[in-house]
Amino acid sequence: MNAGHRGSRCRSPSRSPGGTSRWLIAAATLLLALTGCVARGEETPPPARYGEWPTPDTTGPRYPAVTETGSLSSTADGQVIERTTVTGRLTVRHDNVTVRDVTVRGTGTYMVQVLAKEDGSCPANVLFEYVEVDGAMAAEDDIPLYSPDCGYTFDRGHVHNVGRSSRVRNDTTISNSYIYSDRTGDSRAHRGGVANNGGSNNALINNVIKCSGVGCSAALPMYGDFAPVEDYLIQHNLLSTTGSYCAYGGSLPGKPYPNGSNIRFIDNHFSTEFFDTCGKSGAVAGFANNVRGNEFTGNVWHETGLPLTR
Fold this sequence. Notes:
Layout: H1 22-35, E1 67-69, E2 72-73, E3 80-82, E4 84-87, E5 90-92, E6 98-105, E7 110-114, E8 127-134, E9 143-145, E10 153-155, E11 158-162, E12 166-168, E13 173-175, E14 178-181, E15 194-196, E16 199-205, E17 208-211, E18 229-235, E19 238-241, E20 245-248, E21 261-266, E22 269-270, E23 282-285, E24 295-297, E25 300-301
Parallel strand pairs: 1-4, 2-5, 3-6, 4-6, 5-7, 6-8, 7-9, 8-10, 8-11, 10-13, 11-14, 12-15, 13-16, 14-17, 16-18, 17-19, 18-21, 19-22, 20-23, 21-24, 22-25
């Protein structure tokens, strides 16, 4: 049984015949620290573990496409769509659909969407993995990932050649992905890497998220425009931008829904790639720390590892 968990056989410091020896106590204490032993019945949580930072080479399709098609929609529950190049829009409207090793060459307003089923309910268990979204054929202000209400998981994806933010609304997890809003033309406001304009139960975990060029607001713009920003986990992401801040934290007084809640920034890396302060004006704005369940812990400057505090 591993040391540090219930029932581990850790010995207490023994006593010498003439009383407790100071050096023995010190040696035993060091041994306990090195072995991770704790008193019987206590639990020590394992340390958080993350993968390597995603790159364009470790995300997106692993295998070449065997078919090509125009815009594509799911057709049945349990469908697997794989090793395909889609030129246009990819839409999912069914339960338990998996999309893997697919390239979407977006050509219109939205490139990847999960939409409600015929009965109005959201599809369950929709997974995109090893998917590339390339916006080179779309307009600068077209949106790579956007589902107006329904959620999904997007894992090990590569999003690039896009000008506008991907957007999360409800019940969405983006993980282990490389997302770069790197395309600019005319000056446009409110560009970003992944945006949230209101919604709940979303997570960003172990991603590289960047926004550069004219019109960037942030790598992570979070604004209470259409609903409160709630229940949002932002954990172990690498953020950089040429915008004003690397993140807007969901609590901006001028918005219709100014009070974000349960927004947790945990173990993120804020990069000085473009500015010494991450964004031009700083790392994070519009974030109300330690109220309404909001949390800011374990975040560091990427290049030095020094803590970034609020």
